[in-house]
Amino acid sequence: MARNTPALELIYLDHHYWRAECARVALHIAGIPFDDRRLDYEGMYASGALTFGTFPALVVGGKGVINQTQAIARYVGTLAELYPKDPFLAAKCDEAIDGLTDVSDLVTATMRERDPRRKIAWRQALIASDGRMTMLLGGLEQLLAQSGAAYVSGDSMSVADLALWRAVGWLSSGCIDGVPQTYIESTFPKLWALHK
After folding, report:
1. SS3 for the chain, per residue?
2. Using CA of residue 169, residue 174, residue 179, residue 182, what is the dihedral sign?
3. Average pLDDT for 114-130
């Protein structure tokens, strides 16, 4: 665990969504204290910490604010010693988190559709065998295959693996209409094994 860690304040909704959860869990595993500020939308925007108007945000005492999931994950993963020192393996972690961001963006785009039938049809097209989400999750599956081990960066768990664990939980929860709970389990065995 990193010593002399600055005061940390993680700002996000009171959700167990992967974007904040990978940082929360990494800090918890490492025993690094932090202020877990779970706010509503109004509170997050009023915090003044949303540099890009997006969340989560990590306030680092005496230094400033870090926004964007990948930057937060890299910083927290480094502090928690859950981020590879090897530049290639670090890039594989970044690649996994960027891939998850692309998956999340697909789901977020469907939320603008107000007609429930069209929303479900859109999501079913995304998870079809030739759908964009299937392609992206297939890439994440390949990252695990390429590592030759249980984790994205080999034999050691990283903050990216925590992000994958939580994202698979979200996608398999049944809370996304049109995405069956068995989608990941039946299509992406390595992602499912990592999640389990």
Report:
1. CCCCCCCEEEEECCCCCHHHHHHHHHHHHHCCCCEEEECCHHHHHHCCCCCCCCCCEEEECCCEEEECHHHHHHHHHHHCCCCCCCHHHHHHHHHHHHHHHHHHHHHHHHCCCCCHHHHHHHHHHHHCCCCHHHHHHHHHHHHHHHHCCCECCECCCCHHHHHHHHHHHHHCCCCCCCCCCCHHHHHCHHHHHHHC
2. positive
3. 97
CA 104 – CA 182 distance, rounded (Å): 18
| φ, ψ (nearest 5 deg) of residue 189 | -65, -35
pTM above 0.90, yes or no: yes
Q: How far apart are CA 136 and CA 154, in angstroms?
A: 20
Asked if 160 and 70 count as a contact pair (C-beta separation under 8 A), the reply is no
Neighbouring C-alpha atoms within 13 Å toward the C-beta of 104: 18
Query: What does the pLDDT look like over 38-78, one tens digit per residue?
Result: 999 999 999 999 999 999 999 999 899 999 999 999 999 99
**What is d(CA 139, CA 97) in angstroms, rounded to the nearest whole number?**
12
User: Do 8 and 58 form a contact (C-beta atoms < 8 A)?
Assistant: yes
